[in-house]
Sequence to fold (280 residues):
Amino acid sequence: MWKKSKRTGLGLLLSGIIALLAYRRRSLSRSGVVGAMITGTTTTGMGGWNWGMTLLFFFVSSSLLSHFREREKERTAADKFSKGSRRDLGQVAANGGVATLLALGNGLTASPARRQLLLAAYTGALATANADTWATELGVLSPRLPRLITTGKRVAPGTSGGVTLVGTVAAAGGAFALGLVSWLFQSERSKQLPLLALLSGLGGCLCDSLLGATVQAMYFCPACGQETERRVHSCGTPTTLRRGLPWLNNDGVNFLATLCGALLAMCLKPFFTSRRDVVE
Fold:
Protein backbone atom coordinates (compact mmCIF):
# COMPACT_ATOMS: atom_id res chain seq x y z
CA MET A 1 0.00 0.00 0.00
CA TRP A 2 2.82 2.42 0.90
CA LYS A 3 4.58 1.65 -2.37
CA LYS A 4 1.42 2.40 -4.35
CA SER A 5 0.81 5.64 -2.43
CA LYS A 6 4.39 6.78 -3.00
CA ARG A 7 4.11 5.97 -6.71
CA THR A 8 0.82 7.88 -6.90
CA GLY A 9 2.41 10.93 -5.30
CA LEU A 10 5.36 10.85 -7.66
CA GLY A 11 2.98 10.28 -10.56
CA LEU A 12 1.05 13.41 -9.56
CA LEU A 13 4.24 15.44 -9.40
CA LEU A 14 5.56 14.16 -12.74
CA SER A 15 2.24 14.51 -14.58
CA GLY A 16 1.81 18.00 -13.16
CA ILE A 17 5.21 19.11 -14.45
CA ILE A 18 4.65 17.58 -17.88
CA ALA A 19 1.13 19.01 -18.14
CA LEU A 20 2.32 22.52 -17.27
CA LEU A 21 5.13 22.29 -19.82
CA ALA A 22 2.60 21.14 -22.40
CA TYR A 23 0.36 24.08 -21.47
CA ARG A 24 3.24 26.50 -22.05
CA ARG A 25 3.92 24.88 -25.44
CA ARG A 26 0.21 25.28 -26.26
CA SER A 27 -0.37 21.54 -26.46
CA LEU A 28 -2.93 21.58 -23.62
CA SER A 29 -5.64 23.98 -22.54
CA ARG A 30 -6.28 24.70 -18.85
CA SER A 31 -8.92 22.00 -18.62
CA GLY A 32 -6.55 19.70 -20.53
CA VAL A 33 -3.93 20.19 -17.83
CA VAL A 34 -6.42 18.96 -15.21
CA GLY A 35 -7.35 15.97 -17.36
CA ALA A 36 -3.72 15.07 -18.04
CA MET A 37 -2.87 15.21 -14.34
CA ILE A 38 -5.79 12.97 -13.40
CA THR A 39 -4.99 10.51 -16.17
CA GLY A 40 -1.24 10.44 -15.49
CA THR A 41 -1.59 10.14 -11.72
CA THR A 42 -4.20 7.38 -11.84
CA THR A 43 -2.38 5.41 -14.51
CA THR A 44 1.01 5.57 -12.79
CA GLY A 45 -0.35 5.00 -9.29
CA MET A 46 -2.66 2.08 -10.12
CA GLY A 47 -0.90 0.61 -13.12
CA GLY A 48 2.76 1.19 -12.34
CA TRP A 49 5.68 3.00 -13.92
CA ASN A 50 5.58 0.76 -16.99
CA TRP A 51 1.97 1.81 -17.66
CA GLY A 52 2.83 5.45 -16.97
CA MET A 53 5.76 5.48 -19.38
CA THR A 54 3.58 4.05 -22.15
CA LEU A 55 1.03 6.80 -21.54
CA LEU A 56 3.82 9.38 -21.57
CA PHE A 57 5.02 8.13 -24.96
CA PHE A 58 1.52 8.50 -26.39
CA PHE A 59 1.17 12.02 -25.03
CA VAL A 60 4.61 13.23 -26.15
CA SER A 61 4.47 11.68 -29.62
CA SER A 62 0.94 12.94 -30.31
CA SER A 63 1.79 16.43 -29.03
CA LEU A 64 4.89 16.66 -31.21
CA LEU A 65 2.98 15.51 -34.28
CA SER A 66 0.18 18.00 -33.64
CA HIS A 67 2.74 20.79 -34.07
CA PHE A 68 4.46 19.18 -37.07
CA ARG A 69 3.86 21.39 -40.13
CA GLU A 70 1.07 22.97 -38.09
CA ARG A 71 0.49 25.97 -40.34
CA GLU A 72 0.20 23.78 -43.42
CA LYS A 73 -2.36 21.58 -41.69
CA GLU A 74 -4.32 24.63 -40.57
CA ARG A 75 -4.51 25.86 -44.16
CA THR A 76 -5.53 22.43 -45.40
CA ALA A 77 -8.14 21.24 -42.92
CA ALA A 78 -8.52 23.60 -39.94
CA ASP A 79 -12.18 24.31 -40.82
CA LYS A 80 -12.96 20.60 -40.72
CA PHE A 81 -11.92 19.94 -37.12
CA SER A 82 -14.07 20.95 -34.18
CA LYS A 83 -11.02 21.76 -32.03
CA GLY A 84 -7.47 22.97 -32.49
CA SER A 85 -4.13 21.46 -31.48
CA ARG A 86 -4.56 22.45 -27.80
CA ARG A 87 -6.20 19.42 -26.20
CA ASP A 88 -8.91 20.13 -23.64
CA LEU A 89 -10.42 17.96 -20.92
CA GLY A 90 -12.82 16.32 -23.35
CA GLN A 91 -10.06 15.30 -25.74
CA VAL A 92 -7.90 13.95 -22.90
CA ALA A 93 -10.82 11.90 -21.60
CA ALA A 94 -11.71 10.70 -25.10
CA ASN A 95 -8.20 9.42 -25.83
CA GLY A 96 -7.11 8.33 -22.35
CA GLY A 97 -10.33 7.66 -20.46
CA VAL A 98 -10.59 3.95 -21.27
CA ALA A 99 -6.88 3.42 -20.54
CA THR A 100 -7.24 5.22 -17.19
CA LEU A 101 -10.18 3.02 -16.17
CA LEU A 102 -8.18 -0.08 -17.09
CA ALA A 103 -5.24 1.11 -14.99
CA LEU A 104 -7.65 1.66 -12.09
CA GLY A 105 -8.92 -1.88 -12.53
CA ASN A 106 -5.36 -3.18 -12.50
CA GLY A 107 -4.73 -1.52 -9.14
CA LEU A 108 -7.88 -3.03 -7.65
CA THR A 109 -7.19 -6.65 -8.58
CA ALA A 110 -4.58 -9.06 -7.26
CA SER A 111 -5.09 -11.73 -9.91
CA PRO A 112 -2.03 -12.08 -12.23
CA ALA A 113 -4.24 -13.43 -15.03
CA ARG A 114 -6.61 -10.48 -14.82
CA ARG A 115 -3.72 -8.06 -14.75
CA GLN A 116 -2.29 -9.58 -17.93
CA LEU A 117 -5.69 -9.22 -19.59
CA LEU A 118 -6.03 -5.63 -18.39
CA LEU A 119 -2.53 -4.83 -19.66
CA ALA A 120 -3.46 -6.18 -23.09
CA ALA A 121 -6.64 -4.08 -23.10
CA TYR A 122 -4.69 -1.01 -21.91
CA THR A 123 -2.16 -1.47 -24.70
CA GLY A 124 -4.96 -1.88 -27.25
CA ALA A 125 -6.72 1.29 -26.08
CA LEU A 126 -3.58 3.44 -26.20
CA ALA A 127 -2.43 1.83 -29.46
CA THR A 128 -5.75 2.89 -30.99
CA ALA A 129 -5.40 6.44 -29.68
CA ASN A 130 -1.83 6.64 -30.94
CA ALA A 131 -2.70 5.13 -34.32
CA ASP A 132 -5.61 7.52 -34.79
CA THR A 133 -3.55 10.55 -33.79
CA TRP A 134 -0.63 9.68 -36.09
CA ALA A 135 -3.07 8.94 -38.94
CA THR A 136 -4.85 12.26 -38.47
CA GLU A 137 -1.76 14.42 -38.05
CA LEU A 138 0.15 12.88 -40.97
CA GLY A 139 -2.68 11.71 -43.20
CA VAL A 140 -3.96 15.26 -43.65
CA LEU A 141 -0.63 16.05 -45.34
CA SER A 142 -1.15 13.37 -48.00
CA PRO A 143 -0.63 14.66 -51.56
CA ARG A 144 -3.74 12.72 -52.62
CA LEU A 145 -7.30 13.38 -51.49
CA PRO A 146 -8.65 10.84 -48.98
CA ARG A 147 -11.43 8.43 -49.80
CA LEU A 148 -14.44 7.90 -47.56
CA ILE A 149 -14.01 4.45 -46.00
CA THR A 150 -17.63 3.47 -46.62
CA THR A 151 -18.06 4.49 -50.27
CA GLY A 152 -14.59 5.17 -51.67
CA LYS A 153 -15.69 8.67 -52.70
CA ARG A 154 -13.01 11.36 -52.76
CA VAL A 155 -13.46 13.83 -49.89
CA ALA A 156 -11.66 16.92 -48.61
CA PRO A 157 -8.62 16.46 -46.30
CA GLY A 158 -9.64 16.18 -42.65
CA THR A 159 -13.07 14.72 -43.38
CA SER A 160 -14.13 12.24 -40.70
CA GLY A 161 -14.03 8.74 -42.14
CA GLY A 162 -11.63 9.70 -44.90
CA VAL A 163 -8.58 7.47 -45.33
CA THR A 164 -5.32 7.76 -47.24
CA LEU A 165 -2.33 5.48 -47.78
CA VAL A 166 -0.15 7.92 -45.83
CA GLY A 167 -2.61 7.94 -42.94
CA THR A 168 -2.94 4.15 -42.90
CA VAL A 169 0.82 3.64 -42.82
CA ALA A 170 1.07 6.27 -40.07
CA ALA A 171 -1.64 4.48 -38.08
CA ALA A 172 0.24 1.18 -38.33
CA GLY A 173 3.46 2.89 -37.25
CA GLY A 174 1.76 4.58 -34.32
CA ALA A 175 0.14 1.37 -33.06
CA PHE A 176 3.32 -0.69 -33.41
CA ALA A 177 5.49 2.00 -31.79
CA LEU A 178 3.13 2.15 -28.80
CA GLY A 179 3.30 -1.63 -28.43
CA LEU A 180 7.08 -1.58 -28.69
CA VAL A 181 7.37 1.04 -25.94
CA SER A 182 4.95 -0.93 -23.76
CA TRP A 183 7.07 -4.05 -24.32
CA LEU A 184 10.30 -2.24 -23.43
CA PHE A 185 8.96 -1.07 -20.06
CA GLN A 186 7.48 -4.41 -18.95
CA SER A 187 9.36 -6.34 -16.28
CA GLU A 188 8.22 -9.63 -17.86
CA ARG A 189 8.39 -8.99 -21.58
CA SER A 190 6.07 -10.68 -24.03
CA LYS A 191 7.50 -10.63 -27.55
CA GLN A 192 3.98 -10.64 -28.98
CA LEU A 193 2.95 -7.33 -27.34
CA PRO A 194 4.00 -5.07 -30.27
CA LEU A 195 2.08 -7.29 -32.71
CA LEU A 196 -0.94 -7.32 -30.40
CA ALA A 197 -0.78 -3.51 -30.28
CA LEU A 198 -0.49 -3.32 -34.07
CA LEU A 199 -3.57 -5.47 -34.69
CA SER A 200 -5.77 -4.00 -31.96
CA GLY A 201 -4.63 -0.45 -32.72
CA LEU A 202 -5.42 -0.79 -36.42
CA GLY A 203 -8.73 -2.43 -35.57
CA GLY A 204 -9.65 0.40 -33.23
CA CYS A 205 -8.55 2.96 -35.81
CA LEU A 206 -10.75 1.25 -38.41
CA CYS A 207 -13.64 1.50 -35.96
CA ASP A 208 -12.91 5.22 -35.58
CA SER A 209 -13.05 5.75 -39.35
CA LEU A 210 -16.28 3.79 -39.72
CA LEU A 211 -17.97 5.72 -36.91
CA GLY A 212 -16.68 8.98 -38.36
CA ALA A 213 -18.12 8.18 -41.76
CA THR A 214 -21.52 6.98 -40.53
CA VAL A 215 -22.75 8.24 -37.15
CA GLN A 216 -20.48 11.13 -36.11
CA ALA A 217 -22.23 14.48 -36.29
CA MET A 218 -21.16 16.49 -39.32
CA TYR A 219 -22.46 19.97 -40.09
CA PHE A 220 -22.74 22.20 -43.15
CA CYS A 221 -21.99 25.92 -43.37
CA PRO A 222 -24.53 27.56 -45.74
CA ALA A 223 -22.37 30.67 -46.08
CA CYS A 224 -19.12 28.93 -47.10
CA GLY A 225 -20.64 25.77 -48.54
CA GLN A 226 -18.26 23.62 -46.49
CA GLU A 227 -18.72 20.55 -44.31
CA THR A 228 -17.35 20.80 -40.79
CA GLU A 229 -17.47 19.24 -37.31
CA ARG A 230 -18.31 22.63 -35.79
CA ARG A 231 -21.76 23.83 -34.76
CA VAL A 232 -20.59 27.35 -35.55
CA HIS A 233 -18.22 27.63 -38.50
CA SER A 234 -14.96 29.59 -38.31
CA CYS A 235 -16.62 32.31 -40.38
CA GLY A 236 -19.13 32.83 -37.55
CA THR A 237 -22.11 31.26 -39.34
CA PRO A 238 -24.27 28.71 -37.42
CA THR A 239 -24.14 25.37 -39.21
CA THR A 240 -26.86 22.80 -39.87
CA LEU A 241 -26.65 19.07 -39.18
CA ARG A 242 -25.86 17.24 -42.41
CA ARG A 243 -25.43 13.66 -41.21
CA GLY A 244 -24.82 11.57 -38.11
CA LEU A 245 -26.10 11.75 -34.55
CA PRO A 246 -26.17 15.29 -33.10
CA TRP A 247 -24.87 14.12 -29.70
CA LEU A 248 -21.90 12.13 -31.07
CA ASN A 249 -18.93 14.40 -31.71
CA ASN A 250 -15.31 13.55 -32.45
CA ASP A 251 -14.49 13.09 -28.75
CA GLY A 252 -17.26 10.51 -28.44
CA VAL A 253 -16.01 8.67 -31.51
CA ASN A 254 -12.46 8.61 -30.13
CA PHE A 255 -13.70 7.19 -26.82
CA LEU A 256 -15.68 4.44 -28.55
CA ALA A 257 -12.72 3.64 -30.82
CA THR A 258 -10.31 3.21 -27.89
CA LEU A 259 -12.91 1.02 -26.20
CA CYS A 260 -13.08 -1.06 -29.38
CA GLY A 261 -9.27 -1.34 -29.43
CA ALA A 262 -9.24 -2.47 -25.81
CA LEU A 263 -11.93 -5.11 -26.38
CA LEU A 264 -10.19 -6.36 -29.52
CA ALA A 265 -6.91 -6.72 -27.61
CA MET A 266 -8.69 -8.72 -24.91
CA CYS A 267 -10.16 -11.02 -27.55
CA LEU A 268 -6.77 -11.47 -29.23
CA LYS A 269 -4.88 -11.96 -25.98
CA PRO A 270 -5.43 -15.77 -25.78
CA PHE A 271 -3.74 -16.15 -29.18
CA PHE A 272 -0.67 -14.29 -27.90
CA THR A 273 -0.29 -16.17 -24.61
CA SER A 274 2.87 -18.27 -24.36
CA ARG A 275 3.01 -21.68 -22.71
CA ARG A 276 5.09 -20.17 -19.92
CA ASP A 277 2.30 -17.68 -19.19
CA VAL A 278 -0.26 -20.48 -19.08
CA VAL A 279 1.83 -22.49 -16.62
CA GLU A 280 2.34 -19.43 -14.40
Q: What stands out?
A: The chain has a mean pLDDT of 87. The chain is about 65% helix and 5% strand. Residues 112-139 form the longest helix (28 residues).
